[in-house]
């Protein structure tokens, strides 16, 4: 199988890898770039655990080929914190205990951050619809939604 | 699996023509990747069309018509200021597809070419009068959207054909469209029935042009000329709405499955047709967006 050379930007760093054209972006992130934040829940676009942004657009990395990343800018959950400083969403998720097993959390953080960048003042139903593609088997969603709403309020106040 | 990323539709068509085995174009990949991962279809050749210039562009032409690049994702359509003003039904139909993440990639053309009878954007494209450019070794021709579906999972495209642009007509005066679907949940599900209606009114509110389309009730999306005829000349009074519902139900040829019986789908087709017609009518009057 012929592998393809890809140059892309992940969390601000230029990275290069060789990959089989069948490999998904999720596989590349986890197995080649050692970024295991994005999780595989379903592999079919249903659960959102693999969420990343590509050129600022929220996507499922399980539904993208690794070769498609050529020349793109990708952000994963590993790129959300600023060094040791957690992102306000991350702090709020801890405060609200908006996670249990944590499998869904990286995807939800990436998705919620992308929402707040587009819409700093979402209604609860906007948050719920935006996150409808992020499944959580543990929390019952309520804490997640409240954590996102509260982060949005804090961030609006701070800015 | 060979992966190609050509810079022109001519090259994409030539690659597809020369390929042996199973070929897939890669737009958003939200069908191609799912099928690949589930070992349903492992293509021998994948031709990514996203690096062809203009494939992500939304252009409003001088005559009010729209040209969309074939890799424009639903999210771009929804965020576009003007497109949804002109064609709210089409934009809503596309927006119903999957989650935010799926919207980041899924396209109209992929939805059409995947060939699902339940594809949400197809009834809305059909009623809006959308046309497609198809490029192959002979050149580029333009066809109506309903020339493409052939049956579940099948299209009338032949080897070496690639869809190279989406053309949406000018909205024009006093027009409105709408799309509704029934699903058992509120989000993230496949249509049990989908219905699109597009209307134009005269200054007195009488319907002069109508188009009605149903999804998920037959092997392909249906365009219902009989149902449209029931609306023309009316002001969407109760009698014409009842005739519309009857005609919509009569056109159904659905299957029964765990998500809906034949009887249920047939009934719901009529109900959705009425509701979609009311929304389209209000939009055509300029009452709502
Ligand atoms: C979680 C999830 C939820 C979904 N929910 C819905 C839903 O609610 N409603 C719905 O209708 N669909 C749904 N889908 C299916 C899918 O998202 C849509 O059909 C989508 O519009 C496909 O577009 P795409 O660009 O991703 O297509 P791709 O996967 O890139 O391509 C699909 C097909 O189109 C062909 N193709 C693509 N571009 C061209 C071209 N330019 N010329 C010729 N052929 C081409 C490909 O060869 C392939 O056969 C869902 C999918 C997922 C994963
Ligand atoms: S692993 Fe990608 S959506 Fe579930
Ligand atoms: S915390 Fe376990 S899946 Fe969400």
Question: What are the main properties of this structure?
Answer:
heterodimer, A: alpha+beta, Ubiquitin-like (UB roll), 2 domains, globular, B: 289 residues, alpha+beta, Uridine Diphospho-n-acetylenolpyruvylglucosamine Reductase, domain 3, Enolase-like, domain 1, four-stranded antiparallel beta sheet, 14 strands, 34% helix, 24% strand, binds flavin-adenine dinucleotide
Q: Compute the CA-based radius of gyration of chain B.
A: 19 Å
Identify the strand order in the major beta sheet of chain B: 4-5-10-6-7
CATH class membership of the largest domain in chain B: Alpha Beta
| Oligomer status | heterodimer
Total number of helices of chain A: 5
Distance between the termini of chain B: 46 Å
| Global outline of chain B | globular
What does this entry show, briefly?
With 159 residues, chain A is of the alpha+beta class. Chain A has five helices and five strands. Chain A is globular.
3D structure, described in words:
The complex is a heterodimer of chains A (159) and B (289). Chain A is an alpha+beta fold. Chain A has two domains: 4-79, Ubiquitin-like (UB roll); 88-158, [2Fe-2S]-binding domain (DNA polymerase, domain 1, Orthogonal Bundle), CATH 1.10.150. Chain A has helices at residues 25-32, 88-95, 105-118, 124-130, 142-158, and strands spanning 4-10, 13-19, 51-54, 57-60, 73-75. In chain A, strand 3 and strand 4 form a beta hairpin. Chain B has 289 residues and is α+β, with helices and mostly antiparallel strands. Chain B folds into two domains: 2-116 and 131-168, Uridine Diphospho-n-acetylenolpyruvylglucosamine Reductase, domain 3 (2-Layer Sandwich); 175-285, Enolase-like, domain 1, CATH 3.30.390. In chain B, strand 8 and strand 9 form a beta hairpin. The A-B interface holds A 1-2, 4, 20-22, 24, 43-46, 48, 51, 54, 57-60, 62-65, 67-68, 70, 111, 114-115, 129-134 and B 1-3, 5, 26, 28-30, 33-34, 36-38, 42, 46, 48, 50, 73, 75, 98-102, 104-105, 187-188. The structure holds flavin-adenine dinucleotide and FE2/S2 (inorganic) cluster (2 copies). Residues 24-32, 34, 49, 70, 96-98, 102, 105-107, 109-111, 113-114, 116, 119-120, 157, 162-163, 190 of chain B line the site of flavin-adenine dinucleotide (FAD).
């Amino acid at each position: 199988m012929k592998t393809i050379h890809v140059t892309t930007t992940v969390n601000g760093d230029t990275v290069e890898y060789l990959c089989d054209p069948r490999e998904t972006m999720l596989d590349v992130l986890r197995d080649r770039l050692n970024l295991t934040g994005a999780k595989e829940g379903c592999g079919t676009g249903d659960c959102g655990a693999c969420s990343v942004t590509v050129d600022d657009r929220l996507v499922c990395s399980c539904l993208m080929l690794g070769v498609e990343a050529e020349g793109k800018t990708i952000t994963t959950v590993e790129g959300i914190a600023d060094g040791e400083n957690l992102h306000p969403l991350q702090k709020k998720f801890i405060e609200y205990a908006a996670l249990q097993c944590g499998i869904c959390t990286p995807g939800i953080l990436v998705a919620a951050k992308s929402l707040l960048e587009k819409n700093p003042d979402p209604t609860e139903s906007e948050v719920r619809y935006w996150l409808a593609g992020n499944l959580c088997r543990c929390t019952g969603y309520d804490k997640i939604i409240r954590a996102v709403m509260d982060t949005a309020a804090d961030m609006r106040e701070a800015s | 699996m060979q992966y190609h990323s050509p810079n022109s539709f001519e090259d994409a068509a030539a690659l597809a023509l020369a390929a042996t085995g199973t070929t897939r174009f890669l737009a958003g990949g939200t069908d191609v990747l799912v099928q690949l991962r589930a070992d349903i279809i492992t293509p021998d050749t994948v031709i990514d069309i996203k690096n062809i210039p203009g494939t992500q562009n939304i252009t409003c032409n001088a005559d009010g018509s729209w040209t969309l690049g074939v890799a424009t994702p639903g999210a771009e359509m929804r965020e576009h200021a003007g497109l949804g003003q002109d064609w709210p039904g089409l934009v809503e139909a596309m927006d119903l597809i999957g989650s935010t993440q799926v919207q980041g990639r899924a396209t109209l053309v992929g939805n059409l070419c995947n060939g699902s009878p339940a594809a949400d954007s197809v009834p809305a494209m059909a009623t809006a009068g959308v046309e497609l450019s198809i490029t192959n070794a002979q050149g580029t021709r333009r066809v109506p959207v309903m020339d493409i579906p052939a049956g579940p999972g099948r299209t009338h495209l032949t080897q070496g054909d690639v869809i190279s642009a989406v053309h949406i007509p000018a909205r024009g005066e006093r027009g409105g469209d709408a799309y509704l679907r029934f699903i058992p949940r509120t989000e993230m599900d496949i249509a049990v029935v989908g219905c699109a209606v597009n209307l134009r009114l005269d200054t007195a509110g009488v319907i002069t042009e109508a188009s009605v389309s149903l999804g998920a009730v037959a092997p392909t999306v249906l365009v219902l000329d009989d149902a449209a005829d029931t609306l023309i000349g009316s002001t969407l009074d109760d009698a014409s709405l009842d005739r519309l519902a009857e005609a919509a139900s009569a056109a159904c040829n659905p299957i029964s499955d765990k998500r809906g019986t034949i009887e249920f789908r047939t009934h719901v087709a009529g109900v959705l047709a009425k509701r979609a017609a009311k929304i389209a009518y209000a939009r055509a009057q300029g009452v709502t967006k």
